[in-house]
Amino acid sequence: MNHMPRFETQGLAALEARLSGDLEALELPAKPWVPERTVGGRRVHDVVIVGAGMCGLAAAARLKLLGIDNVLAVDAAEAGREGPWVTFARMETLRSPKTLAGPSLGLASLTFRAWFTAQFGEREWEVLDKIPKDQWMAYLVWYRRVLDLPVRNGVRVTDVRGEGELVRVRCEGAMDTVLLARHLVLATGRSGLGGAQTPRFLEGIDRRFWAHSVDRIDFGALAGKRVAVIGAGASAMDNAATALEAGAGSVDMLIRRREMPRINKLTGIGSPGVVHGLHRLPDEWKWRFLAYAADEQVPPPRASTLRVSRHPNARFLLGCAVHAAIEENGALRLETSLGPLRADYLIAATGFANDLSGRLEFAAIAPHVRTWGDGRQPAAAGGRRPGFSDAPDLGPDFEFRERVTGSCPILRRIHCFNDAAMLTHGKVSGDIPAVSAGADRLARGIAAELLAADVEAHFERLQAYDTPELRGDEWVDAAPLLVRDRAS
Ligand SMILES: Cc1cc2nc3c(=O)[nH]c(=O)nc-3n(C[C@H](O)[C@H](O)[C@H](O)COP(=O)(O)OP(=O)(O)OC[C@H]3O[C@@H](n4cnc5c(N)ncnc54)[C@H](O)[C@@H]3O)c2cc1C
């Protein structure tokens, strides 16, 4: 097949015209069809989305295309600063390959590739290796604008609870109000159902001496200092590299494993089968796949690892488990399986927890949310497993389930569209590769729920619909003639 450039460098205006033509050809967005609801004269939103990062935007876009347009997404971050990309992500480029269709929802002109080549051309595309993280953020900003998605920034959701059949969502910040929603989507990101996971031994240690990798860190202040980083994942490398580039005196990578993970197992079997089928496998199989992948661990990207190892003052300490941290003479003494180590500053790149009770905004619903550890966990899994046993046990539309039936019925209208959904739904609500499939699953589920909830109104519409397709002048009823002829 000849290689022909598929996207031309005609600028974003031309791309946007093309996208608009594509949508028109596909009759998208569908006409709004959900009956309007008000309570005491107040408008009820069909869907409120907490979080306007990639998942929140993809969900808002898919709902819009399905004709569900009474939607609002809110994000605590300023516009253009949602998610990790230009805040605590300290890598230079994305890990993901540039060719992924990401949140484009099956529309070629909505892909990163179309956006990039429209501005920089096919030749630049060919030489682009990985997507610079700031550029990915710029693409998401465009995605939101070109689809005219309803997002309010600077708005933090601080409380979520049921009010009859509706979800009551308390918002603070740029919009100080209470929203009522028929469905709530939690697109709150990797830390969305908990927060940073921090080793116990750091409890009580003065924050002058340590940070989690998601924290704001003054890397300039680490110049000349002894820095230790716990972890061997992407964030561990990116934080270590940033400290080294800022002039850290030394950086020790404290890696519990004796071997660095080298193979990205789940990426290796990525396929439409896994995207659309993993969530329908028996629970035993889901658990086996995901627990195996978690045990094998995801390696840090090669470029991020080289970004650390090229510094002569960086040490990779494998088989180095940290047991304790003690403040001593204005620094930390770390007790490790390789003996004591001293550090002026420690960065814990130790990931995120599924701990809903750790999020104040979900305090009202947290005690009622059923987790896999509440009975869904397969017997063969053995005992409790952090990150798995505490994962929410979700329904087919990402909806929460109640721990005790009847204790918090509103949970079935609250959809967990973030990383914590992985055990139930596979990897479709966090990373770039399958986010369109996840958004589609979510939006179709909500569409079906909205139809069912208004079934009487839709039936009335059916009965009331009276636009004829035939005028009555297209035929003549020959039956009377036939009857007359037979009679004569
Ligand atoms: C450092 C880092 C690098 C990554 N690199 C990659 C990569 O290369 N490829 C890949 O596929 N994935 C990567 N990921 C995974 C990444 O998190 C997702 O791809 C992407 O950010 C997921 O989007 P999201 O919408 O789920 O979450 P986010 O982008 O984190 O967005 C969540 C949003 O929710 C908002 N929010 C949360 N709580 C509230 C509240 N109470 N009120 C209002 N707003 C709220 C936050 O402000 C945030 O903007 C990376 C993650 C990290 C942490």
Walk me through this protein's architecture:
With 488 residues, this protein is of the alpha/beta class. It has helices at residues 11-25, 54-65, 112-127, 133-146, 234-245, 265-268, 272-277, 283-296, 302-309, 422-425, 435-453, 455-464, 479-487; strands at residues 38-39, 42-43, 45-50, 71-75, 93-97, 130-132, 151-153, 155-163, 166-173, 177-186, 195-196, 210-212, 226-230, 250-255, 314-318, 322-328, 331-336, 339-343, 345-348, 352-353, 414-416. It folds into 2 domains: 11-194 and 354-455, FAD/NAD(P)-binding domain (3-Layer(bba) Sandwich), CATH 3.50.50; 200-262 and 299-348, 3-Layer(bba) Sandwich (FAD/NAD(P)-binding domain), CATH 3.50.50. It contains 13 helices and 21 strands. Strands 3, 4, 7, 8, 9, 10 and 21 form a 7-stranded mixed sheet that branches. The protein has a 5-stranded parallel sheet with strand order 12-19-13-14-15, covered by helices on one side. Strand 9 (166-173) and strand 10 form a beta hairpin. Helix 1 packs across helix 3 (112-127). Residues 1-5 have low confidence and may be disordered. The structure holds flavin-adenine dinucleotide. The site of flavin-adenine dinucleotide has 29 residues, from helix 2, strand 4, strand 5 and strand 8.
